[in-house]
Amino acid sequence: MLDDIIAIFSILVSGWSVYNSLLAMYGFTWSPTKLTNYSGKTFSIIIPAKNEEKVLPRLLDRLINQEYDKSKYEIIVVEDGSTDKTYEVCKQYEETYTRDFIKCLKLDQPKVPNGKSRALNYALKIANNEIIGIFDADTVPKLDVLNQASSWFDNNEVVAVQGKLIPINVTENIVTRFASIEELFHEYSIAGRARLGLFVPLEGTCTFIRKETLEKIGGWNEFTLTEDLDLSISLISQGFQIKYDPMIIAWREVPSSLRWLVKQRLRWYRGHFEVTIRLPQGKKLDPRIIDGFLLIGTPLFMVLNLVNYSLVLIYSTSLFVIAASFVSAASFISFIATVTISRKHLIEFYYSILSLIYMNFVVLLNLTALFMEIVRAPKVWIKTERSGKITSEV
């Protein structure tokens, strides 16, 4: 009986790994037609910012210089309990331009687990335009993201659009290389999902959503650690369409120290467990819902990878050969996908090999996140520190 359980779970996890690897490869090869509309929908761009004086200016410069009708968008910066000069930096821009174009808002220290959600909800109330754009302060968007995004909303059935995110500091150090491999693999798997019409999660930056839809569903959840994933589930469970456009491109920082990588990943992984537990039942079960379960369940599948270490217990049985074959095939396909993605983003080959070790580290972090959720450890939304360094051409 134990032999069967070990083999079944090992094959299940291997199948999940192959599924995501093939999605990543499919997304990697996607080159859709570029859309442009230089004066279409109106946008309210919201930037939640806390201790972001290093990176906020470069984002504001990119947004101010967008290739889009300036009368069709506004920029709202919500400074949320900073201890540096984030607010002062923003005020300099507000004074240089007009308050109708750039608004700087200051909030007190949040009393909810997710200060970012609180900042977004606050800005939503004063936003004047039809489409809400969200950018984290470390993001550096291309100059055409607004004219690209605008075209999607000509389709009334589309309520949200997610752009493609690329690490901006890939080669800063060892930590950023491994974090970039992990995030790029995830990003291309999202592209693969979108190309097949499956579940598209919003990623919290370079994200565009209809204001009326946000107001209808009550904005962002201030009591979850992953507000973007929570919002994605709320949208698809009500039948709304989320699109992903790999031609809407923005760069963002990955953590540059092991300490901040661990803090960020624990928040992300634990947030997945929260959403999995609270996932509402849709009235109609479609492929997006099923795929959503598979993506949201990523931390659980990562923890189940531990069962592969138990294969030694069934070494003397015929099941071992079957299970080991699945594990080997899954590892090989995942490795090929990792090498392909790494080469495109100029990550040295040996990091693709070492990423196999890094993934064991990720498994341990997911296990830790699961334990924190089981013992109901306090929820704390910890903002990731930025280095402000750019190692990629943007």
Question: How would you portray this structure in words?
Answer:
It is a single chain. With 394 residues, this protein is of the alpha/beta class. It folds into two domains: 2-25 and 296-374, no CATH class; 34-289, Spore Coat Polysaccharide Biosynthesis Protein SpsA, Chain A, CATH 3.90.550.10. Helices cover 50% and strands 13% of the residues. The chain is built from 13 helices and eight strands. The protein has helices at residues 2-28, 56-64, 86-96, 115-126, 145-152, 174-195, 211-217, 227-237, 258-278, 287-296, 298-304, 318-344, 349-374; strands at residues 43-49, 73-80, 102-107, 131-134, 140-141, 158-167, 207-210, 241-252. The chain has an eight-stranded mixed sheet with strand order 3-2-1-4-7-6-8-5, with helices on both faces. It is globular, with a radius of gyration of 21 Å. InterPro entries: Nucleotide-diphossugar_trans. This is Glycosyltransferase. Pfam families: Glyco_tranf_2_3.
In the CATH hierarchy, what is the class of the largest domain? Alpha Beta
What summary fits the major beta sheet? 8 strands, mixed
Q: What coarse outline follows from CA principal-axis ratios?
A: globular
Task: Please compute the radius of gyration using only Cα atoms.
Answer: 21 Å
Tally of helical runs: 13
Strand arrangement in the largest pleated sheet: 3-2-1-4-7-6-8-5
CATH topology (level 3) name of the largest domain: Spore Coat Polysaccharide Biosynthesis Protein SpsA, Chain A
The end-to-end distance, rounded to whole angstroms, is: 55 Å
CATH-level-2 architecture of the largest domain? Alpha-Beta Complex
The residue ranges in which pLDDT falls below 50 over 5 or more consecutive positions are: none
Portion in helices:
40-55%
How many β-strand runs? 8
Order of SSEs: HEHEHEHEEHEHEHHEHHHHH
Mean pLDDT over the residues: 90
Query: What is the assigned CATH homologous superfamily of the largest domain?
Result: Spore Coat Polysaccharide Biosynthesis Protein SpsA, Chain A
Number of domains: 2
Strand content: 5-15%
Structural class by sheet pairing and helices: alpha/beta
